[in-house]
Amino acid sequence: MRVLGIETTCDETAAAVVSDRLGMDGGDILSNEVLSQIAQHAAYGGVVPEIAARAHIDVLDRLIARALANARVDLADIDAIAAAAGPGLIGGVLVGLTAAKGLALASGKPFIAVNHLEAHALTARLTDHLDFPYLALLVSGGHTQLVAVRGVGDYRRLGSTVDDAAGEAFDKVAKMLGLPYPGGPQIEKLAQEGDPHRFDLPRPMVGRGGADFSLSGLKTAVRLEVLKLGAPSEKDVKDLAASFQAAIVDIMIDRVRGGIKLFTEGEGRPSGLVIGGGVGANGPIRRALTRLCAESGLRFVSPPGNLCSDNGAIIAWAGLERLKRGFTDDLDFAPRPRWPL
Ligand code: KG4
Ligand code: ZN
């Protein structure tokens, strides 16, 4: 089976073709076209919804054509068309969803509305052999959640952020430090040369039960340090980046530990821990989770960085998983700017 996947929920326009493997686990990515809009939003320090929607319109049809061409298939060779129907910026979601519905209508193929978070949660099954149930840590610019993945379409949220998403915290702190958007990669790079112990930053929620996250207090603490410093030097910025990242790593580990406990109480033993979302590309977070999983006797599945951030292959794969189970959608499926798993 082959599925075309379309992603337009945030600031990446993406289209991809993914196929399954006869009688085997995992899938093959036949093409994966991603066009980032970062340059168009950079001057504003974040994603501007109106600019995002217009930019998706400008490039999506060409990107879909390229995804089909690079996969060496025609629309006739595709078994279903999937699009991320949310959660995300409504203008962008509308663009991708409408394109997918149009193609489905014109070709007579099934249409599948994919939850963007579900796509991040299922990516590990595209790249690796992983049985249900497992624990997924979804950390991106808009979301921070721990989810028990019990099956396709069967999720239980164990914890989520009560304020900022992890990527949002990275981006806001980067802005305070005078670094360009998106801040995560910048902070990771500068932190390598910084002293993670110089600033004593808070670790909200750490040591508490449950698996919820809170990151706004940490962000405010960085702001206060910046104000105290006045005009931070290059060294100050590196030390703040390192101290902030160290705090995030401690928070992640403690909260994931809470998630593993909740999971074990509710579902039994997870078959592994999966990370998804742009922040999942962060090296220190990945290494800390690798250690935690080794200690807990859990398998850690971390898809490559380009499949952690937004792309069409993860939408196509989630579509394929749904198609195999007969989950298709009607063409009047409405976009869902908010769509909790
Ligand atoms: O999943 P994603 O590509 O888009 C959303 O759905 O939000 O995630 C983007 C977020 C941004 O906030 C970005 O700063 C963060 O992921 N990010 C990182 C890293 N790379 C991207 N955060 C920390 N470390 C990184 N290496
Ligand atoms: Zn995402």
List the helices and strands and how they pair.
Blueprint: E1 2-7, E2 12-21, E3 24-36, H1 38-41, H2 49-70, E4 80-86, H3 90-107, E5 111-115, H4 116-127, E6 134-139, E7 144-151, E8 154-160, H5 166-176, H6 183-191, H7 216-229, H8 234-267, E9 273-276, H9 283-296, E10 300-301, H10 305-308, H11 312-324
Parallel strand pairs: 1-4, 4-5, 6-9, 9-10
Antiparallel strand pairs: 1-2, 2-3, 6-7, 7-8
Bound molecules: 5'-O-[(R)-(carboxyoxy)(hydroxy)phosphoryl]adenosine and zinc ion (ZN).
Q: What attributes does this structure have?
A:
11 helices; Nucleotidyltransferase, domain 5; Gcp-like_dom; 10 strands; alpha/beta; binds 5'-O-[(R)-(carboxyoxy)(hydroxy)phosphoryl]adenosine; five-stranded mixed beta sheet; single chain; 2 domains; EC 2.3.1.234; 341 residues; binds zinc ion
Describe this structure in words.
This protein is an alpha/beta fold and 341 residues long. The protein has 2 domains: 2-123 and 306-324, Nucleotidyltransferase, domain 5 (2-Layer Sandwich); 132-302, Nucleotidyltransferase, domain 5 (2-Layer Sandwich). Helix content is 45%, strand content 20%. The strands form 2 sheets. A 5-stranded mixed sheet has the order 3-2-1-4-5, sandwiched between helices. A 5-stranded mixed sheet has the order 8-7-6-9-10, with helices on both faces. The longest helix has 34 residues, at 234-267. The chain is globular and about 60 Å long. The model has no long low-confidence stretch (mean pLDDT 96). Zinc ion (ZN) is lined by residues 116, 120, 140, 277, 310.
